[in-house]
Amino acid sequence: MASGKWIKLPNGKLVKQRPNKLELFLAENESLIPFRMGSIDYPTDDSISSTGRRQQYNTKNFDNRKLFGCEITVIGAGAVGGYISYFLGPAQPLLNIIDFKKVEFRHTRNGRTIYEPTMVGFRKVIALKKKIERDYPGTKINTYFYNIAEIPDIELIAMFTRSFVVVLAIDDPEQMLRVSDLAYQLVELIQVGMQAGGRSGHIAISVPFYTPCLRCTLGIGGPEDIHQLHSESANSWDIMTVAQQTARIVIDIMYSKATGQHITRWDTSKNLIYIANTRQELCPDGPGLLFESSQKRPGCSICNK
């Protein structure tokens, strides 16, 4: 990287480019400083510095134009990942979508996925590109027809460094942890998952240096601790509910980083969201959301560095 080159940050300031990509990334994106809801106090952790009091983010002053062209990486274009990518379309971001599979006829039944019968045989990333760019002009899609396991760490790191948010919507336990470990110190990562039969789902949010990593958030040690689902049936409405909530979280984080305004729609100290699609023990009064906080485990090699 050449020294002496000046670049423009999202806040309009000019800074000299530095060889340390991580340091530069954090300097460019310091606007997402986690906080406690209803308070103007900032965390005192040495790894997070405040640049002063900012406006609070709320829907009254939301300007969709500020998100135009912001880069997001979505890993996985299945039932959940496909809907998430589509629901992000109105923000007109630049979407990197990674998936190596093709649309099959079974994917188009009962609205379980975003794909249409005319898309059977297409690569999922190409089908999504055509659908999103058709319905939301201005949104741009970069398609990556690869198994995430085939993409070298160095390439993923470069993509993560450019991204405002990374969305992890795959069910490969080994690659889930590989991606989340790589992303932890670089970018906000949203991992979304459905439970058996779509009766519930979860959204795990990892913020560099602030929240626990995905391993600690989910309380797992390795891939063997993750139960993998293989094409289980689920109600399309339940899938869309989880995807819509995930897209909303992504938009909140993007807007905070793009504008320097704090998130007030949800308490950012609670980084695990449990989504109940039916009446159950955790939600006896019916479907709903449960926001929980997780803790960094002592000795964790990812979030205790």
Structure description:
With 305 residues, the protein is an alpha/beta fold. It has one domain (21-292): Rossmann fold (3-Layer(aba) Sandwich), CATH 3.40.50. It contains seven helices and twelve strands. The protein has helices at 21-28, 79-87, 124-135, 153-162, 173-183, 214-218, 236-259, and strands spanning 6-8, 14-16, 56-57, 71-75, 94-98, 140-144, 165-168, 188-194, 200-206, 262-263, 272-276, 288-292. The strands form three sheets. An eight-stranded mixed beta sheet has the order 6-5-4-7-8-9-11-12, with helices on both faces. It has a two-stranded antiparallel sheet with strand order 1-2. Strands 3-10 form a two-stranded parallel ribbon. Strand 4, helix 2 and strand 5 (94-98) form a beta-alpha-beta unit. Helix 2 crosses helix 7 (236-259). The longest helix is centred in the C-terminal third of the chain and has 24 residues, at 236-259. The protein is globular and about 50 Å long. The two termini are 26 Å apart.
- State the end-to-end distance: 26 Å
Low-confidence stretches: 7-11, 17-55
> What is the number of E strands?
12
> What is the CATH architecture assignment?
3-Layer(aba) Sandwich
Fold blueprint:
Blueprint lengths: L5 E3 L5 E3 L4 H8 L27 E2 L13 E5 L3 H9 L6 E5 L25 H12 L4 E5 L8 H10 L2 E4 L4 H11 L4 E7 L5 E7 L7 H5 L17 H24 L2 E2 L8 E5 L11 E5 L13
Parallel strand pairs: 3-10, 4-5, 4-7, 5-6, 7-8
Antiparallel strand pairs: 1-2, 8-9, 9-11, 11-12
Briefly characterize the structure.
The chain has 305 residues and is of the alpha/beta class.
Can you tag this structure with a few keywords?
305 residues; alpha/beta; Rossmann fold; eight-stranded mixed sheet; two-stranded antiparallel ribbon; 7 helices; 12 strands; 26% helix
